[in-house]
Design brief:
The structure is a single chain. The radius of gyration is 26 Å and the shape is elongated. The termini are far apart. It has helices spanning 2-23, 57-63, 111-119, 198-204, 242-246, 358-371, and strands at 29-30, 37-46, 49-50, 67-70, 74-83, 87-94, 100-102, 106-107, 124-133, 140-149, 152-155, 157-158, 162-163, 165-170, 191-194, 214-220, 225-230, 233-234, 238-240, 257-258, 264-270, 284-291, 302-306, 314-319, 329-336, 340-341, 345-355, 400-404, 422-424, 430-432, 447-450. With 453 residues, the chain is mainly beta. β6 (87-94) and β7 (100-102) form a beta hairpin. Strands 15, 16, 17, 21, 24, 27, 28 and 31 form an eight-stranded antiparallel β-sheet that branches. Helices cover 14% and strands 36% of the residues.
Amino acid sequence: MKKLIAFLICFLMLLSVVSLCAFAEDAEIEDEYYGIMFARWDTLKVDGKVMGTDGQALQYLYSVSGILEAKAETVTVRGWMFCDVEIEGFGYQINDGQPVMKQEFTVEAEQPIRDEAKRNGVDYSERYEINVDVSEMKGMNHLKFLVKLEGTLYELCVENSFLFEFDFHQEGTEIDPTPTPAAIEEGNDPIYIRFNDYDIVEEFFMYATNNNQVKKLEYDDEKNCCVITTSGGNDPNVVLPFYQNSLDDSLSCSMQISADIYKHVVIIGRFDYNSVLLDDNPVMGTFYYTNNEFTDWQEMRNEKYYYEKTDGLQYIKLNFTGNRYYKGQLYDCRFDFFEKAERETSYELYAVCFFANEQDANAFIENYKSNGDAAIPAATPAPETQATERPSETEKPSETVNVENTPSPTEKPSTEKASDSGKRGGCGGVITGLSSAALLTAVSAFVIRKKRK
């Protein structure tokens, strides 16, 4: 009898340890696995109801800007993965709490998934179905989904690029307001970058890269703007190298931009609307950003926008107030001026401007519509090329300055920190100069030359 009691005590002690290991793990979470791991996310459910279209959960998350808002008891994510090592389990983490791993989150993979794993030269595959109890959650909480491999916890990465995490807001409960720097209320003049001068275009894009659909980038002295020409294709883009420029204090456009303060971006452009697509679908673009914490392009760190159906000036207004990743120092941004172009098209880029509040952004747009460049305060004497006149809606280029470059893939911005020192420069607005000793990450430079008639 004593042996039986002793056995039961040991068994119960062991069971408690096993239960603890199954339900909560105090461990570091890695966000990059260097072997072969591929995962798909098929389904998002709220209390058993599929959100969006089954099989397209990630697309649904994009459509709600990475924030799932619902009154719910349980949030479920379902998908599958294969790997070159044994998959030991799945789980989740809420905010920065302890990871929760449960055996029941692992479901046997169907034969097509096992076959896909074999085609990719690996032996291990599983399906996951992770249920998160959100019944006691209030406000906004961050959910992160995990996999355990060889005793190490990794954040799941789905579709080879998206770290599997999103925010959940319990509908009907308040969200704690994001702390607002006191400096936002006053003393933060708008930042204006107006591409109305050859030297400004040359300096600003000196450290920029673009994808291979961008054939050329040129300053047009009749249109008084930068003109980007694309051959067509998906996501033609050019990098706006705010961070790279901030490392070179010899540039008049060397600036350090606070994403904590400047939450509103206005881009002024123009193009032939009917030249972009072959059908009547709306023309769309995307603005990606990076910062000192997130230094690569991700779908949760962008803003999509639609253009007006006009050949006149377009005013893109981006509002990052509710975007939890838009913070810290703004690094390089990627301007996908079209999501898709189906024929060769030229895009006229007039200005990129930053504002600390939406009222100022709206007022600037209305002012520019009425007064053109007079809406932008001049930080230096105005250039001779009609700097105080509104760009004409009908002008055609004659004499241009061509900017030619060797196309190269978009590079990951450097994570090197920059020092602060304030000054004003030639692009307008408040600018800061930084030590050029920090230069440079390897980036293609534009070669600029004048073209005369």
